[in-house]
Amino acid sequence: MIRLKTNKYSRTSLLVLIAATLAACGSESKNTAPSIKLSNNKISVVQNSRGVLSATVTDIDNNLDSIRWQQISGNEQALIEQLDKPSTQFLAPKLPGQYQFRITAVDKLGSHSNAEINVEVVPIEEVAGSELNKLMDTLYTMHQPLIANMALSVTFNDLDYTWQGATGFANVQAQQEMTISHPFRVASISKTITAAVTMKMIEMGNFSLDTQLSELLSDSDLPQGFRVADLHQSNGVKRGGQITIRQLLDQSTGIKDYISYMYDPASPDYIELDRALSGKQQQNMLWEPQKILQNMLERGLTNNLNSAPGEQHLYSDSNAVLLGIVLEKVANAPLHQLMEQLVFAPLAMDSTFMDFHGNHKAQDPADHYYLLSKDNHETSYPEHFYANHNINAINMNTSFAWAGGGIVSTLGDLNRFYRAIHEGTLIQDPELRAQWLSWSIPVDAQGSEFYGLGLQSAIGELNASDTQIEMIGHAGSWGALAFDFQPYNIRIIAWASQFDTQAHWMFAESVLTTLEEMGYNKAF
Questions:
Q1: What's the whole-model pTM score?
Q2: Backbone angles phi, psi at 411, to 5 degrees
């Protein structure tokens, strides 16, 4: 046996080593797991909207290593913005129901803590219905006495939910209440419907977007004394035959508008208002397409134009009239019949029709008004012109609106129509459908507003938000709009029964502002 030689110094070192080891062991046994304090262990958030998962994580030993959020239950996966932060936003699932999220905090020695938050995802209809009704009532009250009635619709495309509301009187004299199914004159939204007929006929092989009028019309199709070439004259050069279907759709022919909005006594709108107010309406008088075209040509609206075909945008109902005449010639059928066969019937738009030119499929359109006052018009009018005129009550003949503004429809039918455009159930050809939704030319110098193939579009920021809003659809001057808005993927259809009102636009803006505040459908 070998005896080790030791001294007091080695024994002291051994005691120090043992003490250090024991201290280390003691330190490990006393390590405290991180502490988690939830701001709230139960929250609710509207489906497809942003919510906040919030916790405070502390570690008295100052050796916190990681934090992680995870979803541990629910029918659909939520999108969490920052998994490794104690407080983070998340985009709630589209499916309502109960969901649970867990936060785990781990220190560098492996100790960990968990905490769970229960999230109730609430159906949007439980929130939207009451709020949208309040907004409608507020706007209606704000715009009294100008607005007789309103009909409003918001469709949440991702959720397959539509809210509709109506207020006021569809017939003021009879005190008939406005309903969500009551028809109204959609004005220039009609241009999208005429465009839909055009796209269907392109899909059927009748012509293409770039087919010229010279291939589709002959001089005999124009009023006596005029030729196809006369449809466009600029700098002494006649180019009417070079106008294409695309240019008629995107309003780039340069032809002036035959509707003057009461500025030209020779325009159909001025003539018919004067007749209605003077009691000189002509019984069963109809503005047939050829009569409208003759009015355009005789007033020189195709002469001395400022641009060549396709050169720049100039919004004009005259384009829709020419397009309607082409469609009737090619199909050998009236435009209102083509609309019924190619659009209304396939989409079950059972309450939509061409006013005056077609058979009424529903009750008379809702009352709507046109204000002429010395404050809002520079032109001098006969004294009897000055009033806020109920177009229905004075029996004004608006058959001149025709292809560019003559359609009567409802909230539900317009919703079906625009859904079919975006979902591809109206135009089956994917390339043609893509071109319909994507082709556009600038309207303003800023490059924020565009006009496409019978569709208006715009991009821009919403109020103080930095969210880029994209909208596509169409508006109508009687007080109507129908647009899809991104990134929210919603469709707003609004009717406010007053020419040149802002009430329908205020409704749309208020809805978008509310959705922005909710973080609706906004991924990270």
A1: 0.91
A2: -55, -50
